[in-house]
């Protein structure tokens, strides 16, 4: 009688990598901590840590999906899922891919009502997308809804993704170049949904600050950021901070900026609009 094979299969050592398939599961605490540090420390060491964290990160890209019927020759049309990503355009005509570290950051710029469905990307996938887009793409912008957002030229994305080698003359420079951040093309206007509670809270606060004469409330688009423009007899930054902190609890998932009123703010943001608070008018 033949003997049965009683050899046991060896158990694999080590734990398998957990696959992240849900956008809500994407979190990057280490990357976000390095991003905070990079705002004040642009040293080569910090840039190398940032590049390494990005290379291993799972990131979120907002997109809109639709199902279209595709027909090939005489075959019966079949439904195909098409994914269209959202893009941000700069004044020089370049398109940048918005990329986010987590859902909290994504929802500062894109809401569910925009039809945004987060897609999970790696840096290699970002690089592949930008390469296929050719010259029309300038690169990617990380966490555009945050004041300290970072832009990465397409060439830097390729270096981080490991699909390109830095040029020799850049060997002594940071792994991720930090050129002046190109300005995202934004417009200012009335909020799509007016934040009445924020208006009331800021109004009540300003009535108690004698130096504040007028305040305007505008929305920065497409970043969905509320901007409070403050005119004051005394320009004490603690006033801006106090107004911003009062407004933030009423911003839901968005963000709030408070800036001083001047000629530039008038031309760029206020544009002759009526103030939501005016010291001379007591409602």
Structure overview:
- With 283 residues, the protein is of the alpha+beta class.
- It folds into two domains: 152 residues, no CATH class; 91 residues, 2-Layer Sandwich (GMP Synthetase, Chain A, domain 3), CATH 3.30.300.
- Helix content is 27%, strand content 25%.
- The strands form three sheets. Strands 8, 9, 10, 11 and 12 form a five-stranded mixed β-sheet that branches. Strands 3-4-6-7 form a four-stranded mixed β-sheet.
- About 10% of the residues have low confidence.
Q: Layout of helices and strands, plus pairs?
A:
Elements: H1 29-38, H2 44-56, E1 59-70, E2 78-85, E3 88-89, E4 95-99, H3 103-106, E5 117-121, H4 123-133, E6 137-142, E7 150-153, H5 154-161, E8 187-189, H6 196-207, E9 212-221, E10 225-232, H7 237-247, E11 255-260, H8 263-270, E12 277-278
Parallel strand pairs: 4-6, 10-11
Antiparallel strand pairs: 1-2, 1-5, 3-4, 6-7, 8-9, 9-10, 9-12
Q: Between the first and last Cα atoms, what is the distance in angstroms?
A: 102 Å
Radius of gyration: 24 Å
Structurally, how many domains make up the residues? 2
- Number of strand segments: 12
Biggest sheet character: 5 strands, mixed
In short:
With 283 residues, the chain is of the alpha+beta class. The protein has helices spanning 29-38, 44-56, 103-106, 123-133, 154-161, 196-207, 237-247, 263-270; strands at residues 59-70, 78-85, 88-89, 95-99, 117-121, 137-142, 150-153, 187-189, 212-221, 225-232, 255-260, 277-278.
